[in-house]
Design a protein that fits this description.
Alpha-Beta Plaits; single chain; Bact_response_regulator; phosphoprotein; Rossmann fold; 7-stranded mixed sheet
Length: 343
């Protein structure tokens, strides 16, 4: 049984949500807006919060920002309940720190399922500190299989990666003059075996987990590169704020760092090419080039040799400080080295 806080100004919706969750075995407390919700959260420390977006006095985004700014409450999983189905509003909620969302109208069975997924996620987070990195990866993958649904695939993944899955295109090439790269060493060592799963199943699940997390936090392209996974966050997009690509890349890195201990961040030009081979029945190969990718590979090797979880190119230091990835002057390496360790 978990303690669930429902923050919803509409009486009928709040009553029905409470009834459904209590029927599923949870204990439920209520609040009619964000201000009352914060007071309830501080007094009761719920396991999960289900919060409406459009409310008087303090809306769901403001409530979420206040929650994440409170050290005592920042780790509580939040499920956003919204009638704003546009992709931009969904992304806004996820960038603000939400763990999941449901679009109204929804079935209350879906609410129960989503809440139970977040309860499991919180239990998993609390146990991760006592586990090894490989055990963390297995637990995270199993949790994400249930928690991340086709909603993310349809709304966030298909549109972004359509040009990579179009079988009618023999060759696709993309060039970014300025992009932030996250190189994730998912397959740096042997994956833990699970009953009923082959090594190929484990590799596929590891890639799926990392791809979902990276795409969720704004990566426009995620692709396997040998034993690594590469995520591309374009920085030369006109509508982005300065440093937004770095902030998104860091949020993705944070979401993976406990489960995947070796990650490298670099910035610069990168080229992506998909080449189809008619001699192999149209099977395609994805090629990556550019100075940023070469630098990311070097940084990955440095991280492994020094036992660091994350290493970044020196050019990213100021933006990572702005994104609260590290305090000014904290961590780092010799001043002569063009890279530094990220705490």
């Amino acid at each position: 049984m978990a303690l669930i806080l429902i923050v919803e100004d509409e009486t009928t919706q709040r009553f029905a949500a409470k009834f459904s969750l209590e029927k599923a075995g949870h204990k439920v407390i209520e609040a009619v807006d964000g201000i009352e919700g914060l007071a309830q959260a501080r007094a009761r420390l719920p396991d999960v919060i289900a919060c409406d977006v459009v409310m008087p006095r303090m809306d769901g985004y403001e409530f979420l920002a206040a929650l994440r700014g409170d050290a005592q409450l920042a780790g509580i999983p939040v499920l956003l309940l919204t009638s704003l189905a546009e992709r931009a509003d969904v992304r806004k909620g996820m960038r603000s720190g939400a763990d999941d969302y449901l679009t109204k109208p929804f079935k209350f069975a879906e609410l129960v399922e989503a809440v139970q997924g977040l309860v499991g996620k919180r239990v998993q987070r609390e146990s991760q500190a006592a586990r090894s990195a490989l055990t963390d990866l297995e637990a995270a993958m199993q949790s994400q299989k249930n928690e991340l649904s086709l909603r993310y695939e349809v709304q966030l993944l298909n549109e972004l990666n359509a040009r990579w899955t179009n079988k009618d295109q023999a060759n696709v090439q993309l060039q970014f003059a300025d992009a932030v790269l996250v190189l994730v060493g998912v397959f740096a060592g042997p994956l833990p075996a699970s009953p009923g799963f082959s090594e190929a199943d484990e590799m596929r699940a590891a890639y799926q987990f990392a791809r979902d997390q990276l795409t969720l936090f704004g990566a426009q392209h995620v692709l396997p590169c040998g034993n690594d996974i590469l995520a591309v966050f374009p920085a030369d997009v006109a509508f982005q704020e300065p440093g937004e690509a770095v902030a998104h890349a860091w949020r993705a890195t944070e979401s993976l760092v406990r489960a995947v201990p070796v990650q490298a961040l670099a910035r610069g030009p990168v080229s992506l090419v998909q080449v189809a081979d008619p001699m192999l029945g149209g099977a395609s190969t994805q090629l990556v080039g550019g100075s940023a990718y070469l630098e990311a590979q070097v940084l990955r090797d440095i991280a492994r040799s020094r036992g660091w979880a994350v290493v970044a190119a020196e050019v990213l230091r100021a933006d990572l400080e702005s994104a609260n990835a590290l305090a000014p002057g904290e961590e780092g390496s010799d001043a002569q080295e063009p890279f530094f360790r990220v705490r």
